[in-house]
Amino acid sequence: MAISPLNIEQVTLAIIVGTLAAIVYSLRILVLMERRIARMDLNIERMTSKIVEEEFKIEREERRIEKALKRKR
């Protein structure tokens, strides 16, 4: 049972096509992960902005309270 050259070429071609399909699938997964991470980054930025706004509100309130306390003395 000798393997004909045509069969070897078909096997080689199948291996190459399979490898390319695996690469394409891996790239697809990487793109999906990158999009998910980008959304996470955007959400973190939004939360950070809200925290900064709250901090400014707290600092303003603290200054207002300190001024009110100084006036009473």
Q: What is the typical, i.e. mean, pLDDT? A: 92
The topology string of helices and strands comes to H
Overall 3D geometry? rod-shaped
Strands, count: 0
* Contiguous helical run count: 1
Category from helices, strands and their pairing: mainly alpha
Low-confidence stretches: none
Major sheet attributes: none
Task: State which percent range the strand residues make up.
Answer: under 5%
Distance linking N and C termini: 107 Å
Could you tell me the radius of gyration in angstroms? Answer: 32 Å
Polypeptide structure, described:
With 73 residues, the protein is mostly helical. Helices cover 93% and strands 0% of the residues. The protein has one helix at 5-72. The longest helix has 68 residues, at 5-72.
Features:
single chain; 73 residues; mainly alpha
How would you summarize the topology of this molecule?
Blueprint: H1 5-72
In a few lines, what is going on in this structure?
By secondary structure, the protein is an all-alpha fold. Helix content is 93%, strand content 0%.
